[in-house]
Amino acid sequence: VQLVESGGGLVQPGESLRLSCAMSGFTLDYYAVGWFRQAPGKELEGISCLNVANGSTYYVDSVKGRFIISRDSAKNIMYLQMNSLKPEDTAVYYCAAELEGVCSSPQALGQGMQVTVSS
Fold first, then answer.
1. Could you tell me if 35 and 48 are in contact, meaning their C-beta atoms sit under 8 angstroms apart?
2. Three-state DSSP class for residue 104
3. Residues of the chain with pLDDT under 70
4. Nearest 5°: phi and psi at 8?
C-alpha cells in the first residue's frame, strides 16, 4: 500500500485544517487505517483510526471532540478534519495502515507532513 498525505501547513490556534490521504494498493487485508503524529522529542502516537470492516472509530483523548476521521472508500481517500487546533497539536502527521489493532502499530506509513499551530 502507498499512502500520500496532503493538507498540512501553518495555522493559528483555534483554526481548522483538513488532512487528506490518498491510498493506493490498499486491500481488505488491512484491519484499520488512520492518523499518527510525532511531536518534537516525543514518540509516534496514534491519534485517530478507523476499523475498515465496521467503520468504528478511535480517538485519543487529546483530540476527542475536535478531530473527525472519515474515509471515502470509493476513492480510497481518508480525511482528518482538525478543528479548534492548539499549539500542542504541532507535529508531523502520518497517514497509516494497520494489519491488526487500531491506532497501535502501523505496518505502513506515509511520508509525513508538518502541521504547525502557532500565533
1. yes
2. coil
3. none
4. -75, 175
